[in-house]
Write a structure and sequence with these properties.
Length: 410
């Protein structure tokens, strides 16, 4: 019955964690999309330093996520989330201090070092907060509608992606201090929601000891590796598209990300239902193809029409593939491994985004934007090959499970 399904899916805990996740990503993406401009305009640094900052952000998050997953596996959902939200609140204030040091005439090296340290700690905070929100969300979902629920959960990211870049760019025109202050303000609101959320304490078999082997969930690895390859492309776009648009007289990065986010919302309203019914393969193929075309358009035809078309294609690509692969990574994990499954996938997310930004920054410095977009587009081919020869043949694949279920009936 439709009413029963809705009641099962839309619990109070699920709705609140979606809102908290939205606020976390507003904080994260506002800073992410403006940080290269902050480094250049305020601290006098170029794209290569911005790439290093993005890489440091991701490396520290990757190193910590498995341990965050272990804490979550042992039932510490709310305490992990609280640590993450606190850090997300404090780090923008650290960037403001870096601005003050530069403005007061202190060593530029000191101001840049502080900004990079805060960027790393921001990565720590994101590792705690969004690993916890993803795990709390997955605790709330039934197996039958898991991909659908994670698609709705991912809409928080989509909405933040639509609003945060434009808001961040608008606020930084007034002052970076205002932009950083607003991003911290979102975390104050998340604290209020945190106080009223009631998480379901999972039934765990036993407390899990800290073992290196247990920090990574093996069943989540295929989807995670496929995601790493794809996100090399999105990492380059999210970190450098705004500056590329400004340098080439194109519509603003805010418009590009607004279009991608509209596509994200549209796709994620349907991606879960389709993945539950037909599997993740349709999104792996079509989304990689769409991203390949989007990057080629940005590289060879930097005009207004192709710029807007590439935004539509990139929005469909990211909007479809990320929740489909996250559902593949997590849906077969029992409660005592759900934290590790989410942290394994989100490590891949950080690795792909960070390496994409780092590789893109280095390529831009040496070859320019057009060559960077063409070379980074090859990652979409790698993503498809990984899926064809590994991912779809693994028991975590919805496609694999449906095939074996049909074979068993026959």
């Amino acid at each position: 019955m439709p009413g029963e399904r809705k009641a099962t899916l839309w619990t109070r805990s699920f709705v609140l964690i979606i809102v908290i996740n939205f606020l976390v990503f507003m904080n994260h993406i506002m800073v992410l999309t403006t940080f290269p401009i902050f480094l250049q305009d305020v601290l006098g640094q170029d794209e290569s330093v911005a790439g290093i900052a993005a890489l440091l952000f991701s490396i520290i998050a990757i190193l910590l996520r498995p341990f965050v997953g272990w804490l979550l596996n042992n039932g510490r959902r709310k305490s992990v989330l609280m640590i993450g939200l606190t850090g997300m609140f404090l780090m923008p204030l650290g960037y403001m201090l870096s601005t003050a040091l530069a403005g007061l005439g202190y060593s530029v090296l000191m101001a840049v070092a502080l900004a990079l340290v805060c960027r790393m700690l921001h990565g720590v905070s994101l590792a705690f907060s969004n690993t916890a929100t993803a795990t709390i969300a997955s605790d709330s979902l039934t197996r039958e509608h898991f991909a659908e629920g994670m698609g709705y959960f991912g809409m928080a990211t989509a909405l933040a992606t639509s609003m945060a870049p434009a808001l961040g760019l608008a606020l930084k025109r007034i002052s970076f201090a205002l932009m950083f202050g607003v991003s911290s303000g979102f975390m104050l609101l998340s604290f209020v929601l945190f106080l009223v959320i009631r998480t379901k304490r999972p039934q765990l078999a036993a407390k899990q000891p800290l073992r290196l082997r247990g920090l990574i969930d093996a069943d989540a690895v295929p989807a995670s590796v496929i995601c790493v390859a794809f996100l090399l492309t999105w990492g380059s776009i999210e970190n450098f598209l705004s500056k590329y648009a400004a340098d080439n007289g194109l519509p603003s990065g805010g418009i590009f990300f607004l279009i991608t986010a509209v596509m994200l919302v549209v796709v994620r309203l349907t991606v879960g239902k389709v993945a539950d019914r037909r599997g993740e393969g349709i999104f792996v193929y079509s989304c990689n193809a769409a991203m390949l075309i989007a990057l080629v358009l940005l590289a060879v035809a930097p005009n207004r029409v192709c710029f807007l078309l590439s935004a539509v294609l990139a929005g469909y690509a990211f909007g479809g593939i990320e929740p489909a692969l996250q559902s593949m990574a997590v849906h077969i994990a029992p409660p005592e491994r759900r934290g590790s499954a989410n942290s394994t996938f989100l490590c891949a997310y950080d690795l792909g985004m960070g390496c994409g930004a780092g590789i893109a920054g280095a390529l831009i410095a040496r070859l320019g934007y057009q060559s960077m977009f063409l070379l980074i587009a090859l990652a979409t081919v790698l993503s498809v090959l990984l899926y064809v020869f590994w991912g779809r043949r693994h028991p975590s694949s919805f496609v694999w499970q449906k095939k074996h279920a049909q074979d068993a009936r026959h």
